[in-house]
Every structure is written in structure tokens, then in C-alpha cells.
Amino acid sequence: MSTAPLLDVRGLHAGYGRAEVLTGLDLRLAAGQVVTVIGPNGAGKSTMLNALMGLLPCRGQLLFDGVDLADATLEERVMLGLALVPEKRELFGTMPVEDNLVLGGWRAKKLKVPNWRGELDRVYQLFPRLQERRAQLAGTLSGGERQMLAVGRALMSRPKLLMLDEPSLGLAPLVVREIFRIIERLREQGVSILLVEQNARAALEVADYGYVLETGEIAMQGHAGELAHDPRVIETYLGAARRPQGD
Ligand SMILES: Nc1ncnc2c1ncn2[C@@H]1O[C@H](COP(=O)(O)OP(=O)(O)OP(=O)(O)O)[C@@H](O)[C@H]1O
Asked: Which SMART domains does its entry note (predicted)?
């Protein structure tokens, strides 16, 4: 590609103490793209996101929007425009919904983005349910509402790249569909998204490009539509599509 990617990861190594989980991962994402990383439990998907966010020590080249992230702290990465919605959502349960959202706006506030509070209206447009429940304590929300709040809070920082760790995890099928509809809408709005998912089918439907991460390495990659039709991906990750052959 002629223009530099928004995110350019080369030879990423990361792990916990002596246990190396990622052993030289390469990944690229162009601005405006939705890129998904699928793979089995324990492959290292969350480890990758945590390393990108600066929550874990790592080695390798990490370029974000042309900036080398090697020595950037978590706060600096947030200021550069990275946002992570972690698997555990990590909301402030004893605070109202709206306060959780406002806290997410500190980057925009610090950057003196004019009318950053207007971001609240955008988030409420995307998630009318959050507006209805703006005064309710976050800890009393349903699983789906908590996920919406976690995504909304990340959007409040006006990120250049939104990283989502298993947004559908633990949610009922109807709510999962709602979450993917929202990802689709964000995509239409031009938000760049790095999506880690176990729900490979839904992830490949919404994404432009996909990577398959297996035991710390990229095993396959390609345009999402092509991956979704690849026999190995179908066999391993889209198993529900298989029809019994009667043997
Ligand atoms: N805090 C930790 N300390 C030590 N090992 C960890 C820690 N977190 C994860 N691991 C190990 O790192 C490996 C990769 O885990 P990771 O959570 O990144 O995988 P994943 O692909 O996101 O899978 P999952 O979908 O289960 O979260 C696993 O073997 C896991 O046991």
C-alpha cells in the first residue's frame, strides 16, 4: 500500500515473565479499516492488545500513526489515540453511566477538543439505551449494556484506533447481534477498529481484513471475505457451518 498504515506491528514479542506468548507477530491496519484477529483460546489475542496498549512489556516494532510506541506509556498511547475496551470491561460500577462516559473523555478534554462534551451526544445517539440509563449505576446494568458502556466510554476519547477484546463474550445471541451492528455503524463512520473475537463468523462478516492467531503466531491472513471461505478456517473456526455428512 502506498500510504503508511495507521498501525504497523513487526516482530512483536510479548509474554508474562519468562513465558513468551507472542513470538514475532506482524500485523497492519490502514486508517478506516476494521481488522479482526481470530484464533483459539489462549492463542495470545488479549496479550497482543495489552502489549499494544502498553500494559505489558514487549519487543518489536510498533508504529502508530507514524509514531514509534517503543517507550510510550499507557497515558501517552491514549493521548496518541489508542483506546482499548478490555475483555473485563472494567467499568466504575458504583458510578452512574454518564460519569463513566465523562471519565472516558479526558483525552479529548486534555487535547482541548472544542465541545468535547458533544461527544456524549454522539455516544447517546449510538446507544440510546445508555441515555435512558444515564443516571443508573454502571454496576446494575445488564451484560450487553455494560459492553455498550465500555465501548461508549472508549469512544469518548475520540480514538484514532478502537481496540475491542472479545466484545461478544458472554452475551446472549440477540445482544451479540446488536453489538456487531454497532461495530458495523462505527465502520461506516470511518472509525478504525482492531477486533479480537472468538465469534469468527461475525467478526469476518464485519471486518475488511483478518488474521488467524495460533499459539503466538499468525497462521493465516487475508481479506475477511476470502478467509471466511477458506476451507481450513471453515473447518477450524466456523464449525457451526459444517453439515453432518452422516458418517
Ligand atoms: N496474566 C497472565 N500471566 C501469565 N500468563 C498469562 C496471563 N494472561 C494470559 N496468560 C497466558 O498467555 C497465553 C495467551 O493468553 P491470551 O489471554 O492472550 O489468549 P487469548 O487468545 O486472548 O485467549 P482467550 O480468548 O482465552 O482470552 C495463555 O497461555 C494464557 O494462559
From this structure: AAA
Q: Is residue 94 part of a domain?
A: no
Residue with cell 472494567: 90
Residue range 22-45, pLDDT digits in tens: 999 999 999 999 999 999 989 999
* Domain that residue 39 falls in: 1-81+161-166+194-239
Residue of 13, 47, 166, 237 with the most ligand 1 atoms within 8 Å of its CB, for mutation: 47
Q: Is the CB of 39 under 6 A from ligand 1?
A: yes
Domain count, the chain: 1
CA 18/CA 68 separation, integer angstroms: 25
Task: Out of 109-118, 134-143, 180-189, pick the least confident.
Answer: 109-118
Atom of ligand 1 nearest to the CA of 196: 22
Residue 44 Cα to ligand 1 middle (Å): 6
Q: Residue whose CA is closest, atom 16 of ligand 1?
A: 44
Distance CA 76, CA 37 (A): 24
Please give the grid coordinates belonging to residue 18.
Answer: 519468562
Residue linked to cell 473523555: 105
Q: What is the pLDDT of residues 206-232, one digit of tens each?
A: 999 999 999 899 999 999 999 999 999
Q: What is the pTM of this model?
A: 0.91
Nearest CA to ligand 1 atom 3: 16
Ligand 1 neighbourhood includes 43 CB (under 6 angstroms)? yes
Closest-CA residue to 92 (of 50, 140, 159): 140
Cell of 181: 451492528
Q: How far is the CA of 168 from the centre of ligand 1 (A)?
A: 18
In a domain, 229, yes or no: yes
Looking up residue 3, the CATH number of its domain turns out to be: 3.40.50.300
247 lies in some domain: no
